[in-house]
Specification:
Elements lengths: L9 H30 L5 H15 L2 H10 L7
Helix pairs in contact: 1-2, 1-3
Protein name: DDE-1 domain-containing protein
Organism: Tuber magnatum (white Piedmont truffle)
Length: 78
Amino acid sequence: IAFCFPLHLTNILQTLDVIVFSHYKKFYSQILKYEFQYRRFGFTKKTFWLLLAEAQLKVFMEAIIKSTFTYTCILPLN
């Protein structure tokens, strides 16, 4: 679904992107460090997707997303 935003709004919305994905990067890095330090497996395409999914479960939670909106002072209508 395409949305039309008012002019000069993308710089405000970019903060949402930066905050959420900085958490995503942090959690993915932590997962990789743990896996390589303790499990010592070969890194394959399958393990890449499994670890990526694990990071997504930790980051894309309702609490993190809501706090990001609060931080940027953008409050959803519902």
